[in-house]
Amino acid sequence: MNVRTKSIIGLLCVTTLAGTYFSYTEHQKNQQWEQQQQRNTQYWSHMQSFYLRDFDYALAESLAASTISDRQAALQSAIENANLILEYVRIGSVTMNFQTWAYETFISDGSSYLAYPASEKDNSLNPDQLEQIERLRTFAKTALPYLDQMKKKAAISSTSDIQQILTEMEEALSQLDSVSTYGNKAFNEFLYNLNPYIPPKPGTVFAGETKYTATELAAKAEIFMGEAWNKGAGNQIVHISGGSSAEFGEVMDFKLSDTEGKSNSSYVATLSKSGHVLQVTRKGSISEKEAEEQSMDLKQAIAVADIWMARWSDERLTLVAKEIKETSIYLTYIPVREQVPIPQMKVVWKFDRCTGALKSFNAFNYFSHYNKTFPLHPKLTAEQASEKLGPNVNVSGKPKLKIHNDKLIYAFPVTGIEGVSHIYVNARTGASEGIDYNL
Predict the structure, then answer these.
(1) What dihedral do alpha carbons 196, 199, 201, 205 form, nearest 10°?
(2) Choosing a second label site near 283 at 20 to 30 A (CA), which of 19, 112, 344, 401?
(3) What's the whole-number mean pLDDT along residues 225-236?
(4) Using an 8 Å Cβ cutoff, are 335 and 315 in contact?
(5) What pLDDT is recorded for position 418?
(6) C-alpha radius of gyration, the chain, whole number
(7) How far apart are CA 204 and CA 215, in angstroms?
(8) 42 touches 154 (CB < 8 A)
(9) Predicted confidence (pLDDT) per residue in 32-58, tens digit
(10) Between the CA of residue 423 and those of 20, 270, 345, 404, 433, what are the distances in Å?
(11) Torsion sign, CA atoms 52, 58, 62, 66
């Protein structure tokens, strides 16, 4: 046997061994995956069976209850178990690809419906309520044997066998009458009373303020826009569109145009009928004048924004955030009243770094809170408020007063809980107002 033949034989042996090892490791991985799926299936079916029995038990308890309060408590328990079942249904769908449409629909519809009989104040449920509860009990009694079968076979059966049981359960459930609320006037009234539609009052923000004509508003827009609308001979400020909203009432859009109606600027200014500038947007390509502007840094952007702000409002706002992002500079201003910042009322400017031109101005958040009276005076000292903090945190700095969810709070910087940088305590009542969480 020559050297070449020996080399070929040796190579074949190595290749065979490598293939065998690869096949073995793949087999091991597949076996481990199958075992994990079996354990997952066993646990899933066990939890489904457990909560579904409790669900049916609670429904039976509601039917047997002798008082309204006992019946309501039982139905509330059924709702809680239904919600737990739904959580595991979704887990099974993601981790094991279990498709249980009929099962999930029954539970989801049941959870939504049961709030209705749980609200019943009469001594007994009406016939329709009793019928729907019986349908849910029939569903539970139909599904339970299949779940029990899955629980028993999960440890010894393949995934495909379990899927087959699920398919059979789905087929059986699809033959049942589902919870029906179609045309149920009492149920629909119950849902409506939970979330009644309250039509907003038109223009509540600027209600009672003087309204201006389009010509008067055009003049106000021109003053605000300043050099951005370099109005030369023959140019005019024209009203191009408008609209209304429940919050701000009627608004009007204005742009710069020549006598023939051709736009001379890419800017559009939006004003309320009471003369407040709500926003400025830039539409289309920038004009030659805008393109000739010089590049801008942060300091220059702030100087320009301050000039605009002085024209925009008598209230002097404070710059609280500045950011350079790609080709834009963002500046955020908020009111600070009696040393209390009000971040909800933010005004945001956006400038082009390359040309120095304004890209947009947005004051909608400011005016959304325009009529609100914010609490500015704490009833508790910072030391008193700190006594409301839990034992698992350590204050790491001086707390600051601020408005959070329209409430005056102390924002305590803390350590001790991963992901929590601040804890908010109501500066007037001492109640917890949430945390600053970022993990």
Answers:
(1) 70
(2) 344
(3) 78
(4) yes
(5) 84
(6) 34
(7) 24
(8) yes
(9) 756 777 777 788 888 888 999 999 999
(10) 59, 39, 22, 11, 8
(11) positive
Residue 330: its H or E element: strand 328-334
- Provide the 10 A C-beta neighbour count for residue 333: 24
- What whole-number distance in Å separates Cα of residue 83 and Cα of residue 307? 56
Report which of 297, 341, 338 is spatially closest to residue 319, judged by C-alpha positions.
Answer: 341
Residue 346 or residue 420, greater confidence = 346
The candidate with the shortest Cα–Cα distance to 151, out of 52, 44, 53, is 44
Give the CA distances from residue 403 to residues 179, 338, 400, 428, in Å, rounded to whole numbers and listed in that order: 46, 12, 10, 12
Is this structure's pTM higher than 0.70?
no
Q: Which residues contact 405 (CB under 8 A, 6 or more apart)?
A: 433, 434
- Say if CB 269 and CB 277 are below 8 A apart: yes
Strand partners, 422: 413, 436
pLDDT in tens, 69-126: 999 999 999 999 999 998 888 777 666 677 788 888 889 888 889 999 999 999 989 9
Q: Residue 406's CB: how many other CB atoms inside 10 A?
A: 12
Which are the contacts of 249, defined by CB distance < 8 A and separation ≥ 6?
202, 203, 205, 206, 207, 272, 273
Tokens of 32: 């481990």
Residue whose C-alpha is closest to residue 34's, from 164, 157, 150: 157
Neighbours of 21 (CB within 10 A): 10
Residue-wise over 74-109: b if at least 16 C-beta within 10 A, else e?
bbebbbebbebbbebbeebeeebebebebbbebbbb
CA distance 296 to 329: 9
